[in-house]
Amino acid sequence: MVLVGGLVTIAACHSSLPGPAVTAGRISADAASCKDTSLTDVDQEPHYQADYLERWKTWDGCTLRLDVVMTRHGGCIDGVDDIVFAWPLEVTKKPYPNLRIYTRDPGHKASDQVPGVLADAQLPAAAVDTGLRQDDRALWLTPSDGTFAWLVSTSGTERLPRGGISCA
User: Under a CB-based contact definition with an 8 Å cutoff, are residues 149 and 103 in contact?
Assistant: First the structure.
């Protein structure tokens, strides 16, 4: 901890995520952190052999297991990704009663299968920060309604509909 001009700066494994993704008082009580070793111990996850999976981190910068949360890039349609996790956050095991899949389709290539993608969305007042981070983005949800998730970054807010793509 460093005191600089009356401000306290803590140097640890914190996210480098810029301002809008973290709003004081709006982080969910269910948000994972580095303290949640069952979620962050990547040595305990099943073996994944796929180059299209991307990891997420906790709000305080620790890597999360792929069986906790992942982004699957591409899949059936190039440029259409999905984010897979259970909420409240947990290691996913069969059966998957709390599993959620949200689809990110910035190019609107699958809008017939996943309506509701919105590239320039407003974050609802009831939304809370899940504490999940990927690159410069934070994942937000509304606790009372799992229909949509929001990716918040300095470049804006995207609304992602719940549901995956059907590969024909």
Answer: no
Q: What six digits make up the tokens of 107?
A: 């190019």
Q: Do residues 34 and 61 touch, judged by C-beta distance below 8 A?
A: yes
The C-alpha atoms of residue 161 and residue 103 are separated, in whole angstroms, by 6
Q: How far apart are CA 25 and CA 116, in angstroms?
A: 28
Token digits for 92? Answer: 């996913």
Tokens of 142: 């509304």
Q: What is the largest CA-CA distance in the chain?
A: 60
Cα(74)–Cα(125) distance, integer angstroms = 31
pLDDT in tens, 118-164: 889 999 999 999 999 999 999 999 988 899 999 999 999 999 999 87
